[in-house]
Write a sequence for this structure.
């Protein structure tokens, strides 16, 4: 299936989730993450959920990271379709941007090469580790700037699609995708 069709299909499926399903699935995903061999790292990039788009509630993952005393890095979207990364501290001010993405206003900047694990939002993924996001390319550019050992962990409410047929050379493959019922390793 092509990305455009997958975006429509999975956005529609996500829209139909009840508030209880969103929370229960988000908790299951956070619990399933604990089984991955990723917790010996230091710097973890996390996205903050866009509640208006019924994204996975990453507050549960944030609690895990803080409980394990990990460095949490958040991103701010720039007009150049790139991300600027900041260390989350007690003083970090979070504000929603024009797309309702919660992001840090400013802070201690962290280079992408320093990030060990990236939790990645998506709409759909396939059995080969390819992903479909919102289509602006922010994460593909970001992941291309990360170090070669950086682990790419996607989070999804739904299981894998069979195949994404219009993969680009600039698309970055996942290492893992965690769903409420299954963890995929690529």
């Amino acid at each position: 299936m092509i990305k455009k069709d997958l975006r429509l299909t999975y956005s529609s499926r996500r829209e139909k989730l009840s508030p209880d399903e969103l929370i229960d699935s988000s908790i299951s995903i956070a619990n399933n993450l604990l089984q991955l061999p990723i917790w010996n790292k230091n710097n973890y990039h996390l996205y903050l959920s866009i509640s208006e788009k019924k994204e996975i509630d990453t507050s549960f993952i944030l609690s895990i990271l803080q409980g394990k005393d990990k460095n949490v890095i958040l991103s701010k979207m720039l007009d150049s379709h790139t991300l600027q990364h900041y260390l989350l501290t007690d003083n970090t001010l979070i504000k929603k941007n024009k797309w309702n993405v919660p992001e840090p206003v400013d802070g201690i900047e962290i280079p992408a090469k320093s990030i060990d694990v990236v939790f990645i939002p998506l709409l759909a993924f396939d059995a080969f580790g390819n992903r479909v996001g919102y289509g602006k390319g922010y994460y593909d550019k970001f992941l291309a700037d990360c170090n070669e050992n950086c682990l790419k962990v996607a989070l999804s409410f739904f299981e894998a699609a069979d195949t994404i047929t219009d993969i680009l050379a600039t698309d970055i493959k996942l290492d893992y995708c965690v769903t409420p019922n299954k963890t995929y390793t690529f």
Remarks:
- The mean pLDDT is 96.
- The helical segments are 3-15, 19-33, 59-67, 138-145.
